[in-house]
Design goal:
The protein has about 400 residues and is an alpha/beta fold. The chain has helices at about 15-25, 40-45, 55-60, 65-70, 105-120, 170, 240-250, 255-260, 300-325, 325-355, 360-375, 380-390; strands at about 1-5, 10, 30-35, 50, 75, 75-80, 85-90, 100, 125, 130-135, 140-145, 150-155, 160, 180-195, 205, 215-220, 220-230, 265-280, 280, 285, 295. The strands form four sheets. It has an eight-stranded mixed beta sheet with strand order 7-6-15-16-17-14-18-21, sandwiched between helices. Bound molecules: 8-demethyl-8-dimethylamino-flavin-adenine-dinucleotide (RFL) and P-hydroxybenzoic acid.
Amino acid sequence: MKSLSTQVVIVGSGPSGLLLGALLHKAGVDHIIVERQSGDYVLGRIRAGVLEQGTTDLLDYVGVGARMHHEGLRHDAFALIFKGAFHRINISDRQGGKHMTVYGQTEVTKDLMDHRSKLGLQTIYEAGDSVAVHDFDTDHPRVTFNKDGESYEIKARFIAGCDGYHGVCRASVPAGSIQNFEKVYPFGWLGVLSDTPPVYHEVTYSNTERGFALSSLRSNTRSRYYIQCGMDEKVENWSDDRFWTEFKTRIDPDAAKRLVTGPSLEKSIAPLRSFVAEPMRFGSMFLAGDAAHIVPPTGAKGLNLAAGDVNVLSQAIVEYFQEQSVAGIDNYSSRCLRRVWNAERFSWWFTSLMHKFPDTEGFGQKIQEAELDYLVHSEAALQSITENYVGLAH
Ligand code: RFL
Ligand code: PHB
């Protein structure tokens, strides 16, 4: 067995793991990332697109913000559609100039990966399903894996579980030491990416009698659209034509007339789930990002929550090594969970408000429309939705 050692082993090279690596490196803490998949696979996943200012500030802080500022789109508002009418909601005016940035998760991942390569930071890709975590109830945890026919062991002081919802870190915690809270929604999102000009230039959420739709974008020439679909729906049953025909019924009539359709570059179905694991620390192992919690994508909180976690975690780990203080690592879980539950509440509420639920029928639709009508006419409600949308402090 080949043995390596470092201060922190990060399991997973999604946005959580990569950003944590960049933050630790900046503070002079050594780490190694171990990733199950190849770099190309990680880069190929089309997911988040809307970044909160707290997230863009962190990307700037670690020195990877240049392309994001050049190619990303500043968004000062989002919009809601209900009863066929379009309502723009200004965020910046209500939240002291704070705004969102539209910049794909793929691009964030690429910028963080390029940064690692430039600095010569070690990422072990394609470790496959062999990755295992050991002894995290002691001060000398280890991560083992096999690669290219060789067995490896990495000894460290801490393990950071940044390995997503299906990862090995959370799954390795004994059942009696962890509590899971979960809600599965009775629908999914069918998403399409296409090189067509976005029908709306700001992120627009639609509530319709046929179900939810979201019009988002990646640039002025690339659209990202989603429609609510049944849980058991198969992507093969959705030709591009069928998608466009359905999508048109879920935007306002003027937009439907000007919608430019085209071939999909990517098409996939994502289930919707709310999930939180408590606590987020188990001795020498910490969970961060989707490994610890999932939000339904309505409200775009997932990646932003992950960035918030690794910000708190990096500060705690740096404090441990530089000041010999355990205060940060002891507070990590409770500090993160407060912010996580806030975002869980908001994402659950926004999902409940915008989607068609099979069991509420006409009454449910009328109640949603009444709440939406209140929302767009009440300054108090607008303050609340924009405060949550722009993100609570990290
Ligand atoms: P990831 O991205 O899942 O990365 C985890 C990494 O760990 C690896 N891994 C392992 N590595 C080693 N050993 C093992 N045993 C391993 N098991 C897994 C995986 O291969 C992977 O590389 O988690 P991370 O880093 O915590 O990042 C979380 C975000 O990806 C996620 O929260 C967002 O994509 C959620 N999300 C959105 N978030 C936003 O903030 N704004 C958005 O606009 C937004 N839109 C979305 C979304 C998620 C979506 N889907 C598909 C769920 C839109 C959609 C449709
Ligand atoms: C996206 O652009 O993929 C996106 C935007 C807003 C959301 C979720 C996803 O709430």
